[in-house]
Amino acid sequence: MTTAATTPAQSAAAVETLKGIRIYEYSDLVYWWVIWFAALVCGGSTYLFGEYIQIGDKSLKIHTNPWLGIAFLGVMFSVLIFTQLRARGLHAVIFLMGVAIIGLTVHIMIGWSAIFDQITLIKVHMNLAFYVVVGVVSFIIWFYTAIIHARLTYGVVNPGEVGWHSPLTGQFELYRPLNFHVSKRSDDIIVHKILGLSFLGLGTGDIDVKFDVPGGGSQHHVFKNVWRPGSKVMRMESLIER
């Protein structure tokens, strides 16, 4: 009679399957990394290639190319708008088709070169201090949202258990769920794919959790803007099924 030896890799995998996970969700402010990064790029360009102009008794450093300010405003307003107006599933397809139709119509009837020529007539110039202030403020807000606030309340999934933990208030709720169902909601193309850095192997998404509570009642929670949600959904399923 022979017995199969357990390899270190197998034992490590077994221990890993027994370990619970934490599900951190983030507010839409987590995507403000785009704003402070754009301010960093524009501020760096202004610092390196800008020119000083005199306004009153102050000398301000400003980049002479108006496209720099226009591009920054375009990035900033795009983040603010698209993080509030989501396009999922069929709506995303309709949105992309609408953008393509509008773009083609403008190209045929007017021409994009004429549009760009008109835009450059709008002289948008920000001085170096503007980019520094916007960059610092948006970075502080992003850092608090992504690093601190998300750790104040998070989901907990252990083998056969699911719950929520709030270190700030000391509250801890844990359930042994019945009829547990977890699924990943359809992604928003711009927010989850582009702003969530899906092309770098990251990506964000929303996880929908539903289950019945022993003794009566049910729980429903949506974890929003979770990093790498696909792998977490699979992990949650394997833990609850144990």
Provide a compact summary of the structure:
The protein is of the alpha+beta class and 242 residues long. It is 47% helix and 23% strand. The strands form three sheets. The chain has a four-stranded antiparallel β-sheet. Strands 7-8-9 form a three-stranded antiparallel β-sheet, sandwiched between helices. Strands 2-3 form a two-stranded antiparallel sheet.
Q: What do these coordinates show?
A:
This protein is α+β, with helices and mostly antiparallel strands. The chain folds into 2 domains: 21-28 and 149-240, no CATH class; 30-143. 47% of the residues lie in helices and 23% in strands. The protein contains 8 helices and 9 strands. The protein has helices at residues 8-18, 33-49, 66-82, 89-109, 112-119, 128-148, 189-195, 229-240; strands at 21-23, 51-55, 58-62, 154-158, 161-166, 171-175, 178-184, 204-212, 218-227. Helix 2 (33-49) runs antiparallel to helix 3.
